[in-house]
Amino acid sequence: MRFLIAALAASAALAAPAAAKDRSKSIEPYVDAGQVLVADLSGGGEVLTYSTIGAGVDASIQTRRVEVQLSYNYERRIAYQRDVADSDTHSGLARAAVRVGAGLSIEGGALATRARNDIRGDAPGNLVGNVRNTSQLYSFYAGPTFQTGDGPASLSAAYRFGYTKVEEPDIYGVDPAAAPLDLYDSAKSHLAQVTASMKAGTILPVGLSIAGAWQREEASQLDQTYDGKFARIDAVLPVARGLAVVGGVGYEKIEITERDALLDGSGNVVRDGAGRFVTDPASPPRIAYEVDGIFWDAGVLYQPSSRLMLEARVGRRYESMSYTGSLQWQMSRRTALQIGVYDSIDSFGRQLSRDLAALPTSFETPHDPFGDAFNGCVFSAAGKNAGQCMDNALGSIASANYRARGVTGILSMNAGPTSFGFGAGYANRRYLVPGSNLVLAATDDDTYFAQFFASQQLDAVSNISGNLYANYYTSGILGAPSVLGAGANGSYARSFGALSATASLGIYTFDVEGEGSSTSAQALLGLRYGF
User: Fold this and answer.
1) Burial level of 417, CB count in 10 A (0-12/13-18/19+)?
2) Any idea which architecture 2-530 has in CATH?
3) Among positive and negative, which fits the CA dihedral 352, 357, 358, 359?
4) Confidence band (pLDDT; 50, 70, 90) for 53?
5) pLDDT band at residue 23 using 50, 70 and 90 as cut-offs
6) How far apart are CA 187 and CA 395, in angstroms?
7) Residues in CB range of 178: below 8 A, 6 or more apart
8) What is the pLDDT, as a whole number, of residue 11?
């Protein structure tokens, strides 16, 4: 919560000068209250009901120099029955980009959400009832970017600071007899990079760029550290109108270390009061992963116009073959499609910061009455950037570093009273840990996800919206079950001036292999008053 408040305050301070000249802004704080009913459809017949109260703010400032959007909500659950736990949830997203001066800009993003804690456990698709296997998390990044030269040659540099914090889960959702996994705590990261480029035909028939970067992350769990240094040169050779052959070669040095967990006299891992592994102070830093050498890639770039760009590359990196690519297609002024294929050495915090940076500064505020609105796909409100699906990171919280490979696609459309979005993807994590970590060593996991969102403005004071979503998880950890989750919900909202009312219905089911399934129906009546 405090990170989002800080992000909003910083954005408002930066935006003030431009906002005075351009009134393209909207800031609406509000309070809300709701009544929720949850019915178990799995045979138990249990029906739970509770109330919610909350407060939040929706803000947007879009000017020539300032682009800021924030949506934040705090919700307090008040139970009437002992079998429903009181709880608090912070849910919010902020993105900002501010042009400070000639070539200099500052950008940042912040996220508060609940995410699945352990890939082996329950896969709750909403936050109604007693939700197991989720943790509240906060993440933000910020930093300056400098760019000069719009002609044949250019120079750019950027710095990013990132921070991620995860609280311990309220209710665990994994068999107590399962092999123990550490819980994520917090991490700080730094990224500095510089690029110099020259367009084809300036001096040589090929375009050239030279880039260097340094990234470091320090995580509190087991004193993990990541240190990476990179340098590469790329060439672009035009072969036809809008078509070019591309290739690059580089050098990288990456080292990931962590210490051992403390063991008791019986050889069991010692945990602190929050359930996290206690670091053995006598343990030296152990190498989880290291690489020191050359990498390369080559491919094609197709860009017939500023609205369409397709790039595909194949190469060798991280001691194996590597495949990457991207498609950016602005089909019309209000419709955009993005597809990305990625391969990187990552951690939960670094991947989440990169997903935040990929989000547009103008996005559709999600309409999910039962779930956490920002733990899946976020769709663009307009423009070339279609949005971003964060399921590749938020599918489950990982305390170890990993090699991340996958594909993500997102389509968004905003045509007046009608908006819809579709996102889907696949993510694979290959964990990078010392050999002493017998649970995660040489294991990987897979996440498959899809989400569809639609809304329709019926008239000046009412609208309907709906969501469909499905997720499937598998893990290579010994004895880990596969988990399937799917759900749908719909809402009708009507405004009465400053007061608005919402009625929602939903259904959700998930199945844990070997442990059975759970299906529930949900209903909500809510009121909101905006100031």
Assistant:
1) exposed
2) Beta Barrel (2.40)
3) positive
4) very high
5) low
6) 19
7) 120, 479, 480
8) 46
pTM for the full predicted model = 0.91
**Measured between alpha carbons, how far is residue 169 from residues 242, 295, 370, 514 in Å?**
51, 40, 19, 23
Torsional sign, CA 200, 201, 204, 205: positive
Q: Is the model's pLDDT at 245 over the cut of 80?
A: yes
- Residues contacting 203, CB < 8 A, separation 6+: none
The tens digit of pLDDT for each residue in 90-110 reads 999 999 999 998 899 999 999
Q: How far apart are CA 405 and CA 183, in angstroms?
A: 23
Rounded CA gap, 33 and 305, in Å?
49
Q: What is the pLDDT of residue 45?
A: 72
Q: Which residues pair with 377 in a beta bridge?
A: 389
What 3-state DSSP class applies to 143?
strand
Q: At residue 14, what are phi and psi to the nearest 5 degrees?
A: -70, -35
Residue by residue, DSSP assigns 257-288 as EEPPBPB-TTSPBPB-TTSPBPB-TTPPPEEE
Domain residues of the chain, as ranges? 2-530
Cα separation, 449 vs 474, whole angstroms:
12
The answer to whether 405 touches 437, Cβ cutoff 8 Å, is no
Compute the distance between CA of residue 170 and CA of residue 36 in angstroms, rounded to an integer: 20
Each residue's pLDDT tens digit, 397-451: 999 999 999 999 999 998 889 999 999 999 999 999 998 888 898 899 999 999 9
Considering only CA atoms, give the Rg of the chain. 24
Give the contacts of 528 (CB within 8 A, at least 6 positions apart).
Answer: 30, 31, 32, 499, 500, 501, 502
User: For residue 6, what pLDDT band results from cuts at 50, 70 and 90?
Assistant: low
Mean pLDDT value across the chain: 90
User: Would you state the pLDDT for residue 177?
Assistant: 73
Whole-number Å distance between alpha carbons of 276 and 35: 35
